[in-house]
Design a protein that fits this description.
By secondary structure, the chain is mainly α. It is built from five helices and no strands. The structure holds fe (ii) ion (FE2) (2 copies). One fe (ii) ion (FE2) binds next to α1 and α2. One fe (ii) ion (FE2) binds next to α3.
């Protein structure tokens, strides 16, 4: 059993992580439609990571005797105006997720739920990496994507990202 407030927030995080996966799949679809296969690949891998995050929160809830309540996942807004917009939206979204995870951590701390704090430590670190990756994509885009050749090369670089299962494993 977990504290009800913490449990509720963890349940909401399952939805937020699935929404993240949905959002990044939408961005992958956008780039695929624009024939930017590298950008598509990068966001497709990102989508897989977000699905994994959702499943980790699910497993943690189940391992602690909590019910998992799945709620409706909102559809992404889409309608990107240029190649850069998904990159800036991705950074804003990661900042939103960081704040969300911080607020669960804060609730766990307030309720002396040290187990959940330890579980969340992985996500606290992960969010630092997520924000950095999103910032790097924006910086690279600004540096290199100003002309078609640069965009082509950046797209090629982003093709090399491969999916890896999360380093956090819950039995
Ligand atoms: Fe995530
Ligand atoms: Fe993320």
């Amino acid at each position: 059993m977990l504290n009800p407030e913490v449990s509720k927030l963890l349940n909401e995080q399952v939805n937020k992580e699935f929404y993240s996966a949905y959002l990044y799949m939408d961005m992958a679809n956008y780039y695929a439609d624009q024939s930017l296969d590298g950008f598509e690949n990068w966001f497709f891998v990102q989508m897989q990571e977000e699905r994994d995050h959702a499943l980790l929160f699910r497993k943690y809830l189940l391992n602690n005797g909590e019910q998992v309540t799945l709620t409706e996942i909102a559809g992404p807004e889409g309608g990107y105006k240029d190649f850069k917009e998904p990159l800036t939206q991705a950074l804003e979204h990661e900042q939103f997720v960081t704040a969300s995870i911080n607020s669960i951590y804060e609730a766990a701390y307030r309720n002396k739920d040290f187990r959940t704090m330890q579980f969340l430590d992985w996500f606290i670190k992960e969010q630092g990496e997520e924000e950095k990756n999103a910032e790097d994509n924006i910086k690279k885009f600004e540096l290199f994507a100003g002309d078609p050749k640069g965009l082509y090369m950046l797209d090629n670089e982003l093709k090399s990202r491969v999916y890896a299962a999360p380093s956090l494993v819950l039995d």
